[in-house]
Amino acid sequence: MENYSSPSGMPPQVSKAKSGGNDKPVTKRAVSLNRRIALIFAVVMALLVVLVLTQSAPTSYVLVVSKQIQPLTSLSTDNVSIVKVDNKAIENGALTSSDAGALKAIFNSTFNSKKVNVQMFKNQQLHKEYIAPDLLVDEQLISLSVKSGDAVVGKINAGDFVDVWAGISNGPVSLVASNIQVYSLGLSQEQLDSLSNTIVSKPDSQKSALLPGNPIPGSYVLKIKTFDVLKFLAISNSTSSGGRVFVTLRSPDATSTIVNGPTDAHTVICGARTDAVCSRK
Predict the structure, then answer these.
(1) How confident is the model over 220-256, as pLDDT tens digits?
(2) Which residues of 220-229 are buried (b: 16+ CB within 10 A; e: fewer)?
């Protein structure tokens, strides 16, 4: 390989390639400006984030119960409150308004002292369908005494829907009425008699102090149709001669119970059999 050298015998000088020709050195002033721009950008972004997070969503006022209440409890300012909530949190059918004063006026004129027909829990929104309707022109309230063991052992509450059955002593049982709403609960006749005797013997005692705490109901006030009153009075009267009344708890969404007719234990056990074992004596 041939070796080229400069005339002077020294190796030729190779010039370094220029990276930019007109590049200027980075100064402290340029670095400071870049930092300012970055800081301003960060501040602007932070302000935008805060603005998005703090931007208030549309709100309205809604009626809620301020504590747990049982069915057929009367509404009042003691158990109902007006609160502001996000519109997205308002339930369909809830009593609401964009103005708290207007909502308060609606409550006072339309719903104050009305009874609810369902159990409600604290902060639950109030709906129109939760308001128990007043008695219609063809409805009446009637009290029915039933033994605890014949009425789901005290599991029935005000507002529940029940079927009422009756049986003749050692005879047939039949459906009296279906899908009946329980308006309120009461003491049994024996408990009422005992309470009455105590009040007579202690006239200065407070009646509320004599009532048993959370007693198992022995009587039920039912909301029934006027044309059913005679049937209920008849079955109530039959208990003095050995008849029995039964109350069964049902779903309010179930269709009315339909039975083919009265039946007795013999029919249930034997059905259509007529042999010696099932022959009536």
Answers:
(1) 999 999 999 999 999 999 988 889 999 999 987 888 8
(2) bbbbbeeebe
State the residue range of the domain holding 70.
59-130
Instruction: Give the strand order in the sheet containing 80-86.
Output: 80-86, 59-65, 96-97
Q: Say how many C-beta atoms besides its own lie within 10 A of residue 214's C-beta.
A: 6
DSSP-derived pairing of the beta strands 244-250 and 161-167: antiparallel
Q: Is the dihedral of CA 195, 201, 204, 205 positive or negative?
A: negative
pTM of the predicted model over 0.70: no
* CA 187 – CA 222 distance, rounded (Å): 14
The sign of the CA dihedral 224, 225, 226, 227 is negative
Helix H, strand E, coil C: the string for 20-36 is CCCCCCCCHHHHHHHHH
Domain co-membership, 116 together with 170: no
235 conformational bin, left if phi > 0, alpha if psi -120 to 50, beta if neither = alpha
Is 196 found in the same domain as 85?
A: no
